[in-house]
Amino acid sequence: MRLAIAFAAVVASILAAAAPSSAEDKAALLASTGKALQEQLACLSSPRPAVAIRAMMKNGLVAETKFGADGIPVFRPTADLYVLGERVLFLTGWEMEGDEIRKPFSRGPGTAPPLFLAVVLDAVPRDISYREHMVRGSDGVAIGSFSTIEPTKENYSKRGTTITCYGGS
C-alpha cells in the first residue's frame, strides 16, 4: 500500500510539473520519472501505464513510434531515461480505464490485451539488478500482479532486456 501511495505522489508531481524550463529541471524530471517507472515495474501492485505514459507524453519525455500494433502503442524516450541504472530504449503498455479505452491506447471490443507496462532496457538480463515478482496460488497460477524479465525479442528491438509488469485482480 505504501508503494502505491508513494508511486501516486511521484506521478502527481510529474503530472503537475510544467514542461521543464531548464536542463536542470529536465534532469530532475527524468530522474523522478525513472524512479516512478522502476516502482511500477517492481510490480507489487498492478501497473498504471495510462497515468505513466500520459504524464511522460505531457512532459515531452516520450514520443510514439511506428512500432505499435493491435492498439498497443510503443514509445521511445526523447532524452536519456534510466530505470534500474540502465537506459530505456522503448516503453509500452496497455490499460483499459473502467469501460473505456482512451488514447494513447485503442482496441476493438472483446480483443483487449492484458493490463501491462513494459520497458526495453539497453543491457542484458544478467547485468540488471531486478527480481521478478510473482505470487502463486496452490494451483501454481499467478495471483495478482506479476512481472517478467527476459532478453528482448520484440519486432522493434532484438537487443536489450524487456521487463514487464502485468496487472492482476
Key features of this structure:
about 170 residues; globular; 3 helices; about 25% helix; two-stranded antiparallel sheet; single chain
Average pLDDT taken over every residue: 87
Major beta sheet summary: 7 strands, antiparallel
Instruction: Work out the radius of gyration.
Output: 15 Å
**What is the overall silhouette?**
globular
Question: How much helicity do the residues have?
Answer: 25-40%
User: Regions with pLDDT < 50 over 5+ consecutive residues?
Assistant: 1-5
What does this structure look like?
With 169 residues, the chain is an alpha+beta fold. It has one domain (2-166). Helices cover 26% and strands 24% of the residues. It has helices at 2-16, 23-41, 49-58, and strands at residues 62-64, 74-77, 82-83, 86-94, 116-121, 135-136, 142-143, 146-151, 161-166. Strands 1, 2, 3, 4, 5, 8 and 9 form a 7-stranded antiparallel β-sheet that branches. Helix 1 runs antiparallel to helix 2. The two termini are 15 Å apart. The model is unreliable at 1-5 (pLDDT under 50).
Describe the secondary-structure layout.
Layout: H1 2-16, H2 23-41, H3 49-58, E1 62-64, E2 74-77, E3 82-83, E4 86-94, E5 116-121, E6 135-136, E7 142-143, E8 146-151, E9 161-166
Antiparallel strand pairs: 1-2, 2-4, 3-4, 4-5, 5-9, 6-7, 8-9
Helix pairs in contact: 1-2
